[in-house]
Specification:
alpha+beta; 8-stranded antiparallel sheet; disordered C terminus
């Protein structure tokens, strides 16, 4: 069924309301009979004029006018809409809480900035032709305007209107979101990917999202590649997904849908991937990153996206839910989620998991912390942690984590630099390194680690890292192993061995000079651990040390007081590292690649969260038994205390490493890395890319099993 036909009945049901709202908004925009004066009057006229433009866009999409526009016309319209929040214009936009407070006053500024931000989401509903969402947003605006028109309105009255609007329409927002995640008939984006003429880049403007030079140049570049190369890139992506199910020994034929996440501009690869997924029996479910406050998660974006016109804008509004989030709203959101999952239980059972085609190459973002932006109270922070636990538990009721998988791959955007095409090709090679060659190297490392009680990590130079990682004991070393030999199945590219460390005994300082996490840059990030839990933290992002601590708590600890170390890993992909150094793109790499370029730890859940009972084996046949820690094991008695629903990897690059040594119970040390180079026998070939940057992949010959045996005997 055509997506627009699917919405026809819902649109007809609100058509009369939509017309009445549109008439009232035109009246407000015109200034006739204006009763709200001064800066507040200017605000409402400006926002009403914006909503008028949205109405015009809705009509243009409905009548097919945009399909007939020239590329220049589409570009002009797109830039005009998003231009207001471009950095150079944002200082004078009501979307900026600082400007809103400055012009509208302390009482109304922040909340009216939130209102405008929420109303700006109408644009995407105009392109999706979702008249219901447009209408209820317009009615909210009119209701608040009428309050000011009558006079004597307080902040709390405005807040109450917004609160009850979100409460009453939570079904509409959250129920629709759940359906978007599960129902392939909501095919707005799928129809673009599979039906558009991808050689005509005007298709990029069909989404309603901001289209930058990144999206345009990306689409043009992919159009220049032969279909064979496109299919090969897609196959690495889709075959990793298939392998994830094979490793879990899960029957993929029982699944029906796959969620594909990507950046606009990559449609040619995504189309090839859809064809390949269909050969596996999976239909695509493609949904936009959330635009409604009830469905957002801070400034993180999950779904298909485009380049961000202004990351500060999203950062300023990351805690807008401070306006309304309380225990009653928490319960309401969970009730609406449950109702939606019950309605789409069959679709949830057939959901196979996400396939994420990520991008990198943006300029690292260093946020400004504005006092005018909303912040969560301590009570709300605790409630958000409770909601994360409850909502994930609810999802796991309907989507069995033991029977789903995922895959992630990443490619550069044109903004990576002048050598974009060259870098793209080098990344393609990195994403396709020979897994068999790494399997042998990494197994040699695991053999030593399996005989160890803990691992010591020391930084060098300005890096002050001094960490001790405690490892789980093996009951039967002949059949069991502590580390997973990660070979680029679900997690591409190849190049790491990882484990869930034992928390007790895991202590010390993790220090990274510069790191880019969840879209944010951290300067001199320092995390102190005691028995596996974060006890102290700081960074140099802000002159005020307390502001830096707030920054870490909000964006790395997700407003919790502490988090455990959920993962310890040693990255082995020196080819990727040398490639990044060659093109000077270290700071722009996603964690997906960066985590393979040195040792890393993760804050939050283990890599096996919600799937601990699934038996997983390394290629040598040994079962991986280090899947739990002292937090996750609580799932058997109190799941709410077991999971944190976050996992953030933090890597120490090779050049900052003094040593990594494996230490057995007798305190005998076996060096793995010294001064940024691998020294363990059986891993020495990992140093080849450092010595010869032109070598494209590792050519591993036989390792010295005799020397390895000597190390093991000594251990």
């Amino acid at each position: 069924m055509d997506y627009r036909v699917l919405l026809k009945e819902e649109n007809e049901a609100v058509k009369e309301r939509a017309q009445l709202a549109a008439e009232r908004i035109r009246e407000i925009a015109s200034g006739k009979n204006e009763k709200v004066e001064g800066e507040l009057g200017k605000y409402f006229k400006t926002v009403a004029a914006f909503l008028e433009k949205c109405d015009a866009i809705y009509a243009a999409v409905s009548d097919g006018i945009l399909d007939r526009c020239t590329l220049e016309d589409l570009q002009r319209e797109n830039r005009k809409f998003y231009g207001e929040i471009f950095p150079e214009n944002y200082e004078a936009s009501y979307a900026n809480p600082a400007y809103a407070v400055k012009t509208l006053g302390e009482e109304y500024g922040r909340i009216l900035s939130f209102l405008y931000t929420e109303l700006r989401s109408e644009r995407v509903f105009c392109f999706e032709q979702n008249l219901e969402k447009i209408t209820i947003l317009n009615e909210l605006f009119i209701e608040i305007y009428c309050m000011f028109e009558r006079g004597d309105v307080s902040y709390h009255q405005v807040k109450d209107v917004i609160y009850w609007f979100l409460y009453d329409y939570a079904d509409a927002w959250m129920g629709w979101r759940v359906r978007e995640m599960l129902d392939p008939s909501l095919s707005f984006a799928s129809d673009i990917v599979m039906g558009a003429d991808l050689s005509d880049i005007r298709y990029l403007y069909s989404y309603g999202e901001y289209i930058s030079e990144n999206e345009i140049r990306m689409a043009q570049y992919l159009s220049s590649l032969p279909q064979k190369e496109i299919d090969e890139i897609a196959f690495t992506f889709t075959d990793g997904y298939r392998e994830g199910f094979a490793l879990k020994n899960v029957d993929l034929s029982r699944k029906k849908t796959v969620n594909i996440r990507y950046n606009i501009g990559f449609e040619r690869i995504i189309r090839a991937a859809v064809y390949q997924f269909r050969e596996l029996g999976l239909e695509p479910v493609i949904y936009r990153a959330a635009v409604n406050t009830l469905n957002k998660r801070q400034n993180l974006k999950v779904g298909y996206v485009s380049s961000n016109p202004n990351e500060q804008y999203d950062y300023d509004h990351r805690f807008d839910d401070a306006i309304y989030f309380d225990k009653r709203m928490l319960d309401r959101k969970l009730t609406c989620m449950r109702k939606a999952y019950e309605e789409f239980a069959d679709e949830a059972e057939g959901f196979a998991g996400p396939a994420c085609f990520e991008v990198f190459g943006e300029i690292p973002f260093e946020p400004e912390s504005k006092p005018e932006a909303y912040r969560l109270s301590e009570r709300q922070q605790n409630l958000k942690a409770e909601y994360a636990a409850e909502s994930n538990a609810l999802i796991n009721e309907f989507i069995n984590q033991d029977e789903r998988s995922f895959t992630i791959i990443a490619y550069p955007l044109p903004s990576i630099g002048e050598k974009f095409e060259e870098i793209f090709e080098e990344v393609r090679k990195v994403n396709n390194l020979d897994k068999e060659k790494y399997k042998e190297i990494q197994q040699n490392m695991i053999q030593v680690l399996d005989r160890s009680a803990f691992v010591k990590i020391m930084g060098r130079g300005s890096n002050m890292t001094n960490l001790t990682i405690a490892l789980t004991d093996l009951e039967d070393p002949e059949t069991q192993t502590k580390f997973e030999n990660c070979l680029a199945d679900v997690n591409i590219p190849v190049g790491e061995v990882f484990t869930s460390p034992r928390l007790k005994g895991t202590s010390g300082l993790l220090h990274v000079n510069n790191v880019y996490l969840n879209g944010l840059c951290y300067k001199n990030l320092r995390l102190q651990f005691e028995d596996g839990m974060v006890t102290e933290y700081s960074c140099d992002n802000f002159p005020d040390e307390e502001e830096g601590k707030k920054f870490i708590k909000e964006n790395l600890l997700f407003n919790r007081e502490t988090l455990p170390m959920g993962e310890f890993a040693i990255g082995t992909n020196t080819t990727a590292y040398v490639m990044a150094a060659k093109y000077d793109i270290m700071s722009k790499l996603p964690i997906l690649i960066a985590e393979k370029m040195g040792p890393h730890v993760a804050l939050g859940d283990t890599c096996y969260s919600y799937s601990e009972e699934v038996r997983v084996f390394n290629p040598d046949g040994k079962e991986i038994i280090s899947k739990d820690n002292e937090c996750s094991i609580l799932r058997k008695e109190n799941p709410k205390k077991a999971y944190f629903n976050c996992h953030t990897d933090i890597t120490i690059p090779y050049e900052a490493l003094g040593r990594i040594v494996a230490v057995n119970k007798e305190r005998v040390e076996v060096p793995i890395i010294l001064d940024g180079r691998f020294v363990l026998d059986g891993t020495l070939r990992l140093n080849d890319p450092f010595q010869n940057e032109e070598e494209e992949e590792l050519d591993i010959e036989g390792t010295s099993s005799e020397m390895l045996e000597e190390i093991l005997v000594e251990d």
